[in-house]
């Protein structure tokens, strides 16, 4: 005998696993068992196969992988004896599911077993087929199952009936084959067969309209009679459950009657008597009886109208609702939801009880009751119901608040009789559960507020009060901040006082205090803070005398690590400080938001930011054009070669929207580190807002599309370009062409100091760098040269990081005039990352008498594969005239 | 329709799982984790239904074991409670006052019994007696096969002595 297979018995393995104190011990035991089972599997051990499979099933239940046992199931099923088959089929159902290919291999064994002479083996096969059959198997084996519906033993017939359910669910086309056999099964007396046949009948009706018609005509009478007999049957101990004869059968009979009676007056008429009998005669003190009554009520609700029965049903539900058993109350709430469409008035009578259920300690009941209340609300009772719900919101469980808030908001939005009520209720909800309110809810609130112009003053004053008490609810803070920003003047001047209001005195600085507190509160997230900044900008215009204080608060966010805040802060600071003439126009009162278009957009994706999108931002609009401009260098170049796709990849990259652009200007302060895709826009935005009033970009839109190919042709067409370009700089690339950049010969570059790079230092020649030392130097390159402007790059590497190149750019101006507002920008393809540090100055003196230096750091993510390349753009003012120079630098040493 | 049956111990250990709707192994363990988290934490007096992913899970606690069945929204919860009780009574009759240990060491028997109660997620027999009789008949088939095998091996053993 195989030494491995003589392992432990099943019982011993279970004991060993249960004796484990830690998960690690358990894993060790399971691993050992699995190893011996695998060994037995590979040895094709017959003696202990069934034991091994039983062990595997236990291991499977513990959650360990057992796929290697799947074939063992098939072998056991194929064995001739009943014990092997029994465990084999059990393993098949446990370890496999219908989506596994292995299952197809069992079809043949199943077919043989369905035709077996031993009825128990037939039963095993039917059970397995019923539980895990796939559509293919269902198709292949349907004829066998159909035949077994007439098998001599009732226990096989009932299994075949349930197996047929699986088959018609998988392959609805096969339904018609089963209709006739089922009709004869419905006449049987055996409860198991009857039970399963009725179930099959119900499922046939669902998949096939014809079957439904057939059963309605032929079987309604019979089924009604069976139910009558079941209800009136004498005590039968075999089927008795707490005094009721076979509730399972009665429930199924009621269910099939519901299907047959639904939408058919004749059939419904036929079953009225028996339904009334069930509804009145069934004992309701035990679960089984209630289960029948519950099913009966549902059937009464679904079949065609019969007034008397409905009253009976609603009364049963009323009894259920006042029952002390939670299960019964739960199903009552469930059923009342269905009853509401049939008899709304009757359900309304139970409103008080239902409202109590919302406050139940059981989460399942609360949830059901809340759904039901939601359906019960209408124009006439919305006010008291909402009040009840909001009152309960105050004391409800944390984990229920989310659901409750959503439902209240939805009720208020759907049914509010007037705007002031809507605003009041929403404020209450926001104060109590602002953190549970979804974004679109408070967005909608803002839309409503903007639309009710007579309530602006009232709303902003209410919000001012609300934020004093509920500053921990983010949604209140947001709405309040927005409204104070928008209607700050109404708040301070008490404009639009309503009679119901108590007057309050708010000074300008009180209003600003609120926003300052909100921006400083540590729980405020990015959106709230960004909204605060926007509100401050608006207030700087509404309260001109507090402008300086606002500017100070705005300035505090300049150093924020969050890009959005930093950007807003810098932009708004510049608007407040420099563009007072522009400011009031920029932050004018928002136009009334269109409710229809807003609600149309709800549910779409663009909802979450809509509150912010609508805020006028004077800078945003001009973003696109400069970006295009920056990338679109080939304005005057000749037509591109048609086959442009042959160009190198990085040029595509360079032009891609996601090009990594960085730039810096001395004025832009601390913000010049940007990576990633969105940086391009941000930088430009930043540049434009911090510098002079932005000049509209001259690049025509049509150029953008051709720029890719233009660029590709750039290298070949340099000379052409020189001739054609009528720019003040006659040949931007001439320097490039003529300059044969010397090969980076290590040690032969005394021009460059490794450490500070400030020009030649002949007295200390650098030590000859070793090959593996990455801290090497390169000869300086002339990166760009036009008429009077030249750009030198000093390149160096830090030891230990070969990917990073440090560049010191040095700009000199050989003309006699001074260049002011000098800004250098650079763009690199995606495989590079560029980091620019602030330039030493933004004024470049003439006659080469001085220079600007600026450090760049380029990280090459494809070091060794691709070499560095860069596009640059230099803008400056010459005699107050905007000048622009652009070029590409591709003469970097190859191994940067 | 019952989508699956779970038996979970008070400690969250799985004692029996039966899936009538297709769930991958990964989904199965996720379902078990989610549901044991939801059900084991519920208080004793609450209702026996939890709503879960658009389905309802009906559960009932017997001593240290939770019997859970997942059904559709429109199914009759009260009836499923009866089905659970029906199954438990049959187990009780079979093992003679069943306890958790019976179901651990004879888990396959619990499955055989369940297969006589449910197929394709539907009830197949409302008579406990019939189920008991069918299971007993199959058990005796197994016993008979075992004895036969033993006697054959005895004969072989004697013959080769």
Automatic annotation (TrEMBL), chain A:
It is found in: Cytoplasmic vesicle, Clathrin-coated vesicle membrane; Golgi apparatus. Pfam families: Adaptin_N, Alpha_adaptinC2. Subunit of clathrin-associated adaptor protein complex 1 that plays a role in protein sorting at the trans-Golgi network and early endosomes (TGN/EE). The AP complexes mediate both the recruitment of clathrin to membranes and the recognition of sorting signals within the cytosolic tails of transmembrane cargo molecules. It comes from Lactuca virosa. It comes from the Eukaryota. Residues 700-726 have a biased composition (Low complexity). Residues 776-893 form the GAE domain. Its main location: membrane. One of its GO terms (biological process) is intracellular protein transport. Residues 661-671 have a biased composition (Polar residues). It is a peripheral membrane protein. The keyword Heme does not apply. This is AP-1 complex subunit gamma. Keywords: Cytoplasmic vesicle, Golgi apparatus, Membrane, Protein transport, Transport. One of its GO terms (cellular component) is AP-1 adaptor complex. Residues 636-777 are annotated as: Disordered. Belongs to the adaptor complexes large subunit family.
Automatic annotation (TrEMBL), chain B:
It is found in: Cytoplasmic vesicle, Clathrin-coated vesicle membrane; Golgi apparatus. Keywords: Cytoplasmic vesicle, Golgi apparatus, Membrane, Protein transport, Transport. Residues 1-140 form the AP complex mu/sigma subunit domain. PROSITE patterns: CLAT_ADAPTOR_S. One of its GO terms (biological process) is cytosolic transport. Gene3D superfamilies: 3.30.450.60. GO terms for cellular component: AP-1 adaptor complex; cytosol. Pfam families: Clat_adaptor_s (PF01217). It is a peripheral membrane protein. GO terms for molecular function: clathrin adaptor activity. The keyword GTP-binding does not apply. It comes from the Eukaryota. Subunit of clathrin-associated adaptor protein complex 1 that plays a role in protein sorting at the trans-Golgi network and early endosomes (TGN/EE). The AP complexes mediate the recruitment of clathrin to membranes and the recognition of sorting signals within the cytosolic tails of transmembrane cargo molecules. Adaptor protein complex 1 (AP-1) is a heterotetramer composed of two large adaptins (gamma-type subunit and beta-type subunit), a medium adaptin (mu-type subunit) and a small adaptin (sigma-type subunit). Belongs to the adaptor complexes small subunit family. This is AP complex subunit sigma. It comes from Lactuca sativa.
């Amino acid at each position: 005998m195989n030494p491995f297979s003589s392992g432990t018995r099943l019982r011993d393995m279970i004991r060993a696993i249960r004796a484990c104190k830690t998960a690690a011990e358990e894993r060790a035991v399971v691993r050992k068992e699995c190893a011996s089972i695998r060994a037995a599997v590979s040895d094709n051990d017959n003696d202990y196969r069934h034991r091994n499979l039983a062990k595997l099933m236990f291991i499977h239940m513990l959650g360990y992988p057992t796929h290697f046992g799947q074939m063992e199931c098939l072998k056991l099923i194929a064995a001739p004896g009943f014990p092997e088959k029994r465990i084999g089929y059990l393993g098949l159902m446990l370890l496999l599911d219908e989506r596994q290919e292995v299952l197809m291999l069992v079809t043949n064994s199943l077919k043989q077993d369905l035709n077996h002479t031993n009825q128990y083996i037939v039963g095993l096969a039917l059970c397995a087929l019923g539980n895990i059959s796939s559509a293919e198997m269902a198709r292949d084996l349907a004829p066998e199952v159909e035949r077994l519906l007439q098998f001599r033993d009732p226990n096989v017939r009932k299994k075949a009936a349930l197996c047929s359910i699986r088959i018609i669910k998988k392959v609805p086309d096969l339904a018609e084959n089963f209709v006739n056999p089922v009709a004869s099964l419905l006449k049987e007396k055996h409860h198991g067969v009857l039970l399963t046949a009725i179930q099959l009948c119900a499922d046939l009706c669902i998949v096939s309209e014809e079957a439904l018609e057939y059963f309605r005509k032929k079987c309604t009478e019979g089924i009604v009679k069976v139910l009558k007999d079941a209800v009136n049957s004498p005590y039968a101990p075999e089927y008795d459950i707490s005094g009721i004869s076979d509730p399972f059968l009665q429930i199924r009979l009621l269910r099939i009657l519901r299907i047959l009676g639904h939408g058919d007056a004749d059939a419904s008429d036929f079953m009225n008597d028996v339904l009334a009998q069930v509804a009145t005669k069934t004992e309701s003190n035990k679960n089984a009886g209630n289960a029948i009554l519950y099913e009966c009520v549902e059937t009464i609700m679904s079949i065609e109208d019969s007034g008397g029965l409905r009253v009976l049903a609603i009364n049963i539900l009323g009894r259920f609702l006042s029952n002390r058993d939670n299960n019964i109350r739960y199903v009552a709430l469930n059923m009342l939801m269905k009853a509401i469409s049939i008899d709304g008035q009757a359900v309304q009578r139970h409103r008080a009880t239902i409202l109590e259920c919302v406050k139940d300690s059981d989460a399942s009941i609360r949830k059901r009751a809340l759904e039901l209340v939601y359906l019960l609300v209408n124009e006439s009772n919305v006010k008291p119901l909402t009040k009840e719900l909001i009152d309960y919101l105050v004391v409800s469980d944390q984990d229920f608040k989310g659901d409750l808030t959503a439902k209240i908001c939805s009720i208020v939005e759907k049914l509010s009789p007037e705007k002031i009520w809507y605003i009041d209720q929403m404020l209450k909800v926001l104060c109590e559960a602002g953190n549970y309110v979804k974004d679109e809810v408070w967005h909608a609130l803002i839309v409503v507020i903007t639309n009710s112009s007579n309530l602006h003053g009232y709303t902003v004053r209410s919000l001012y009060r609300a934020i004093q008490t509920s500053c921990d609810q983010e949604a209140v803070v947001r709405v309040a901040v927005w409204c104070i920003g928008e209607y700050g003047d109404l708040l301070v001047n008490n404009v639009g006082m309503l009679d119901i209001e108590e007057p309050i005195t708010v000074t300008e600085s009180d209003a600003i205090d609120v926003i300052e507190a909100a921006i400083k509160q540590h729980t405020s997230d990015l959106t709230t803070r960004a909204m605060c900044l926007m509100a401050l900008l608006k207030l700087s215009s509404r309260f001109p005398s507090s402008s300086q204080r606002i500017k100070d608060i705005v300035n505090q966010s300049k150093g924020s690590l969050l890009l959005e805040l930093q950007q807003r802060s810098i932009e708004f600071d510049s608007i407040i400080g420099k563009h007072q003439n522009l400011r009031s126009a920029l932050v004018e009162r928002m136009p009334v938001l269109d409710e229809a278009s807003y609600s149309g957009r709800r549910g779409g994706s663009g909802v979450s930011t809509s509150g912010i999108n609508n805020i006028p931002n004077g800078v945003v609009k001009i973003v696109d054009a400069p970006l295009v401009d920056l990338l679109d260098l080939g304005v005057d170049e000749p037509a591109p070669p048609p086959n442009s796709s042959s160009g190198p990849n990085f040029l595509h990259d360079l032009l891609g929207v996601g090009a990594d652009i960085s730039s810096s200007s001395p004025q832009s302060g601390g913000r010049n580190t940007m990576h990633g895709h969105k940086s391009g826009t941000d930088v430009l935005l930043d540049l434009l807002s911090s510098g002079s009033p932005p000049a509209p970009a001259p690049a025509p839109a049509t150029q953008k599309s051709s720029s890719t190919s233009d660029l590709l042709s750039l290298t070949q067409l340099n000379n052409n370009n020189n001739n054609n370009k009528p720019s003040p700089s006659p040949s931007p690339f001439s320097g490039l062409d003529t300059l044969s950049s010397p090969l980076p010969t290590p040690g032969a570059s005394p021009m460059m100091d490794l450490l500070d790079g400030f020009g030649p230092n002949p007295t200390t020649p650098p030590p000859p760098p070793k090959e593996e030392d990455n801290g090497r130097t390169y000869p300086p390159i002339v990166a760009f040269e036009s008429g009077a402007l030249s750009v030198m790059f000093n390149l160096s590497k830090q030891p230990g990081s070969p990917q990073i190149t440090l560049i010191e750019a040095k700009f000199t101006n050989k003309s006699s005039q001074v260049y002011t507002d000098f800004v250098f920008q650079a763009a690199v393809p995606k495989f590079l990352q560029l980091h620019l540090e602030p330039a030493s100055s933004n004024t470049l003196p003439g006659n080469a008498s001085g220079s600007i230096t600026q450090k760049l750091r380029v990280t090459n993510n494809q070091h060794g594969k691709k070499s560095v390349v860069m596009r640059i753009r230099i803008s400056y003012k010459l005699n107050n005239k905007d000048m622009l120079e652009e070029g590409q630098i591709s003469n970097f040493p190859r191994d940067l | 329709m019952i989508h699956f049956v779970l038996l979970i111990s008070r400690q969250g250990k799985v004692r029996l799982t039966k899936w009538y709707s297709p769930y991958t192994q990964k989904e199965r363990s996720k379902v078990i984790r989610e549901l044991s988290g939801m059900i084991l934490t519920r208080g004793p007096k609450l209702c026996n239904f939890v709503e879960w992913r658009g389905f309802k899970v009906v559960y009932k606690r017997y001593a240290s074991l939770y019997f859970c069945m997942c059904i559709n929204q429109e199914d009759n919860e009260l009836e499923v409670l009866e089905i659970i009780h029906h199954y438990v009574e049959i187990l009780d009759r079979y093992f003679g006052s069943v306890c958790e240990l019976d179901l651990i060491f004879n888990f396959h028997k619990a499955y055989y019994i369940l297969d006589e109660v449910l197929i394709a997620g539907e009830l197949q027999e409302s008579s406990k007696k019939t189920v008991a009789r069918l299971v007993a008949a199959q058990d005796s088939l197994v016993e008979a096969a075992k004895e036969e095998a033993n006697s054959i091996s005895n004969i072989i053993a004697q013959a080769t002595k």
